[in-house]
TrEMBL record:
It is an enzyme of class 3 (hydrolase). The keyword Hydrolase applies. Its EC number is 3.1.4.55. Transmembrane segments: none annotated. It comes from the Eukaryota. GO terms for molecular function: phosphoribosyl 1,2-cyclic phosphate phosphodiesterase activity. CDD domains: metallo-hydrolase-like_MBL-fold. Residues 75-189 form the Metallo-beta-lactamase domain. PROSITE patterns: PROKAR_LIPOPROTEIN (PS51257). The keyword Hydrolase applies. This is Phosphoribosyl 1,2-cyclic phosphate phosphodiesterase. Keywords: Hydrolase.
């Protein structure tokens, strides 16, 4: 991402809402059916309050607090996973964040999109105060996958006044502006063609 004219770097901030895996940390299975010996990370995860506990992590998500020179704040949310509601209760209330200006979806997996209903409901209440539609930036493939699971987010459905889909291209040379920030799409392959993800006996691959 790149700053555009009018940004105030001193007052802007990055808030890591979550840095955990899809199932989150602690893993539920480790707590209800602990191994022997018990997993040290999960077993210690409940010993300290979540906000001070490195072993208590929600789905990966980042909130960019982009402050302009006039003091206005723009909140850009990257990914809204299954634990988004918990992230709101923990961090939005702590930092007194009352709205989200736009959402960027990196991919279509549950740990990145299954909190969309919560963020849309949160934004829907803001419409009462004449807030604009919530822009959601995603690739065509990602949007199609999301709409197959959340068909009511299609244009023409009852929440059409909440969501404004913005299709982006997976091309680094075609950046776009999201709530004042210039974003450069960087295609990566986190789950496809991973060497070692599906290992066959006696077959080795080296990078």
């Amino acid at each position: 991402m790149a700053k555009v004219d009018g940004a105030s770097e001193e007052q802007s901030a990055l808030i890591f809402l979550g840095t955990g895996c899809s199932g989150g940390v602690p893993k539920a299975q480790c707590l209800i059916r602990p191994s022997n010996p018990a997993c040290p990370v999960c077993s210690q995860s409940l010993s300290v309050k979540p906000e001070h506990n490195p072993n208590y992590r929600c789905n990966t998500s980042l909130l960019i607090d982009y402050c302009e020179t006039n003091g206005d704040h723009n909140y850009i949310l990257i990914d809204v996973g299954k634990t988004f509601r918990e992230q709101v209760l923990r961090w939005f209330t702590y930092y007194k964040i009352r709205w989200v200006d736009c959402v960027l979806l990196t991919h279509e997996h549950a740990d990145a999109v299954h909190g969309l209903d919560d963020v849309c409901s949160m934004h829907q209440s803001a419409l009462i105060n004449n807030a604009s539609q919530l822009p959601i930036y995603a690739t065509q493939e990602c949007m199609d996958s999301v709409l197959s699971r959340f068909p009511y987010l299609r244009k023409g459905e009852h929440k059409q006044g909440v969501v404004d889909w913005k299709i982006i291209e997976e091309n680094f040379e075609k950046p776009f502006i999201a709530s004042g920030l210039q974003v450069y799409p960087l295609p990566v392959s986190p789950h496809r063609s991973l060497y070692g993800a599906l290992v066959r006996p006696s077959i080795f691959m080296f990078l």
